[in-house]
C-alpha cells in the first residue's frame, strides 16, 4: 500500500510530462482506486479526476512546442498555489519550478477534503525548496567544448543551456591568477530535437580571437546568469614547421566509453593538440529525446573543453537529418558542418560525410554538392604553393572503402559505394583521392583496428608507401 501511495503521488506530481501522447496510463486508475479504498474514496477520486482533467487541458493548450511543461494546481486548505514548470527534463538536470501566482483559495468544499491536506501540503513546500537551486541549474552552461576555426589565432567555444542566456567567454593568458579581463561575445541558437518531446536547448557559440599562437589561456563561459567551471586551452601554433599531436578515434558511446579515462588523463598531461572523432557518437545522440546526446556531451567535456574536438558525421548521427550533430558541434566553414577542411601544421585535413551516399532521402544533391566541394578543396590543397607549405593531405570520414571484417558493411564489398560511387560510377571517391595524391585516409565504423598498405583499385601500390 505504501508503494501504491508513493507511486501515485509521484504520478500526480510528475506525471504530466509523461502524457505528451495525451493518453492516460490505465494503471493510474487501478492503483489509485485501490489506494483510495482505505481513505475517503469518493472525494479523492473526484479530486484526482479534476486534477487530471486540468492537466490534460493545460498540456493541450500549452505544450505545443514539445518543450516539456506541465501545470497543476493544488488546493491546500486556505491557499491555492498555481505551479508552473517550464523546460525539459534531462536526466541529470533539475526542472525549473516557478511559483507563478499565490492567491486566496475558495473555502474548502467539505471537511473530507481536509484529509487530503497532509498529502498536498508537502507539494508547495517541495516546489519552493527547489526554486533557487533549479533556477541556477537552468542557466548554467554545460557540455562545453572547443573547436578550431582554421585560424591559429582563434578558438570557438560551444556550450548548452536550457534557458536563454547571453553568450560570453571571459579569458586571460596564463600564467597568473585567473582575472578574466578579456571578453568575447557570440551568438545563441535554439535547437529543437526531432524526438516526440521536441526538447529544446540553447546552443551558444563564441569565437575567441587575437590569440597568441602557442599561448595557454584560462577561460570560463556563460554570462552573469551563470558561469561554467574554469577551463584552459593552448592556442594552436602557427605555421607549418611543427608536428601536431592528434588523438584519433571513432565510434565512442555514452556507455562503456573505454577510451575516455585515458583521453582525460592524457589531455591533462597536454599530450594532444587536437582530437579527431571520426563519426558515431553516444549511440545515439538523438536517443531518449536527445538526453543521451546531453549525457555524452557532458562526459566529453572533460576532454573537449581543453582541446579542439574536431568531428565528422557517422551513420549513428543520421536521425532527423543529422540535426543533433549539426547543432551540437561547431566545425569550420560554411557547410552546415557536414564537410569542411582545415590546416594544422604541415597537414591539410579534409573532413567529409560518407553518410550522404547512404541516406539519399535527405537529398541526392548532397552527394554531388560534397563531391564538387572536395574537388575544389583538393585542387587548392594540392597546388604547388600550398603543397610546398603543407605537404600532407589527409582525409577523415566515417565508413571506409576497404576492410577485412566479415560483416555486411559497405567496405567488404568489392564495389564499395564509397570507393566506386553511386550506381553508374558517379562521385567515386577512390579515383578522386588517387588523382590528387591524398596521403592518408582515416576511417572508423568498423570496430577494429586496421592499417593498410597503400591501396588503389584493390591492389597494393608501393609507389606511395609511407614509411
Ligand atoms: Fe558507424
UniProtKB/TrEMBL annotation:
<protein>
    <recommendedName>
        <fullName>Purple acid phosphatase</fullName>
        <ecNumber>3.1.3.2</ecNumber>
    </recommendedName>
</protein>
<dbReference type="InterPro" id="IPR015914">
    <property type="entry name" value="PAPs_N"/>
</dbReference>
<dbReference type="InterPro" id="IPR008963">
    <property type="entry name" value="Purple_acid_Pase-like_N"/>
</dbReference>
<keyword id="KW-0732">Signal</keyword>
<feature type="domain" description="Purple acid phosphatase N-terminal">
    <location>
        <begin position="141"/>
        <end position="234"/>
    </location>
</feature>
<keyword id="KW-0378">Hydrolase</keyword>
<dbReference type="InterPro" id="IPR004843">
    <property type="entry name" value="Calcineurin-like_PHP"/>
</dbReference>
<dbReference type="InterPro" id="IPR041792">
    <property type="entry name" value="MPP_PAP"/>
</dbReference>
<dbReference type="Pfam" id="PF00149">
    <property type="entry name" value="Metallophos"/>
</dbReference>
<dbReference type="InterPro" id="IPR029052">
    <property type="entry name" value="Metallo-depent_PP-like"/>
</dbReference>
<feature type="domain" description="Calcineurin-like phosphoesterase">
    <location>
        <begin position="245"/>
        <end position="449"/>
    </location>
</feature>
<keyword id="KW-0325">Glycoprotein</keyword>
<comment type="similarity">
    <text>Belongs to the metallophosphoesterase superfamily. Purple acid phosphatase family.</text>
</comment>
<dbReference type="Pfam" id="PF16656">
    <property type="entry name" value="Pur_ac_phosph_N"/>
</dbReference>
Amino acid at each position: 500500500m505504501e508503494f501504491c501511495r508513493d507511486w501515485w503521488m509521484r504520478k500526480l506530481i510528475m506525471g504530466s510530462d509523461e502524457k505528451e501522447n495525451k493518453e492516460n496510463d490505465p494503471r493510474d486508475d487501478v492503483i489509485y482506486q485501490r489506494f483510495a479504498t482505505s481513505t475517503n474514496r469518493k472525494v479523492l477520486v473526484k479530486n484526482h479526476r479534476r486534477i487530471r482533467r486540468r492537466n490534460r487541458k493545460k498540456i493541450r493548450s500549452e505544450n505545443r512546442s514539445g518543450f516539456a511543461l506541465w501545470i497543476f494546481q493544488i488546493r491546500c486548505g486556505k491557499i491555492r498555489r498555481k505551479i508552473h514548470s517550464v523546460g525539459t527534463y534531462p536526466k541529470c538536470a533539475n526542472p525549473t519550478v516557478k511559483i507563478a501566482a499565490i492567491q486566496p483559495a475558495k473555502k474548502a468544499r467539505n471537511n473530507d477534503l481536509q484529509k487530503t491536506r497532509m498529502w498536498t501540503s508537502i507539494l508547495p513546500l517541495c516546489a519552493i525548496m527547489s526554486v533557487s537551486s533549479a533556477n541556477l541549474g537552468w542557466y548554467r552552461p554545460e557540455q562545453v567544448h572547443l573547436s578550431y576555426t582554421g585560424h591559429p589565432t582563434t578558438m570557438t567555444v560551444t556550450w548548452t543551456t536550457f534557458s536563454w542566456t547571453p553568450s560570453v567567454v571571459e579569458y586571460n593568458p596564463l600564467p597568473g591568477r585567473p582575472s578574466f579581463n578579456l571578453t568575447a561575445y557570440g551568438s545563441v541558437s535554439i535547437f529543437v530535437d526531432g524526438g516526440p518531446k521536441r526538447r529544446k536547448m540553447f546552443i551558444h557559440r563564441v569565437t575567441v580571437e587575437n590569440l597568441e599562437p602557442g599561448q595557454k589561456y584560462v577561460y570560463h563561459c556563460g554570462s552573469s546568469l551563470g558561469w561554467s567551471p574554469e577551463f584552459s586551452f593552448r592556442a594552436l601554433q602557427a605555421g607549418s614547421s611543427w608536428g601536431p599531436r592528434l588523438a584519433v578515434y571513432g565510434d565512442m558511446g555514452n556507455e562503456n566509453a573505454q577510451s575516455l579515462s585515458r583521453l582525460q588523463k592524457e589531455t591533462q598531461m597536454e599530450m594532444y593538440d587536437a582530437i579527431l572523432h571520426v563519426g558515431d557518437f553516444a549511440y545515439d545522440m538523438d536517443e531518449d529525446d536527445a538526453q543521451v546526446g546531453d549525457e555524452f556531451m557532458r562526459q566529453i567535456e572533460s576532454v573537449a573543453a581543453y582541446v579542439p574536438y574536431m568531428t565528422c558525421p557517422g551513420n549513428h548521427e543520421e536521425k532527423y537529418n543529422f540535426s543533433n550533430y549539426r547543432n551540437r558541434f561547431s566545425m569550420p566553414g560554411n557547410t552546415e558542418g557536414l564537410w569542411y577542411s582545415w590546416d594544422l601544421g604541415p597537414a591539410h585535413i579534409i573532413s567529409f560525410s560518407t553518410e550522404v551516399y547512404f541516406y539519399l532521402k535527405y537529398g541526392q544533391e548532397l552527394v554531388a554538392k560534397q563531391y564538387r566541394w572536395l574537388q575544389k578543396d583538393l585542387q587548392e590543397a594540392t597546388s604547388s604553393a600550398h603543397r610546398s607549405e603543407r605537404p600532407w593531405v589527409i582525409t577523415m570520414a566515417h565508413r571506409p572503402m576497404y576492410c577485412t571484417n566479415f560483416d555486411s558493411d559497405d567496405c567488404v564489398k568489392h564495389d564499395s559505394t564509397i570507393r566506386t560511387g553511386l550506381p553508374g560510377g558517379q562521385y567515386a571517391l577512390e579515383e578522386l583521392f588517387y588523382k590528387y595524391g591524398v596521403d592518408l585516409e582515416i576511417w572508423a565504423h568498423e570496430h577494429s583496428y586496421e592499417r593498410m598498405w597503400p591501396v588503389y583499385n584493390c591492389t597494393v601500390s608501393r609507389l606511395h608507401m609511407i614509411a
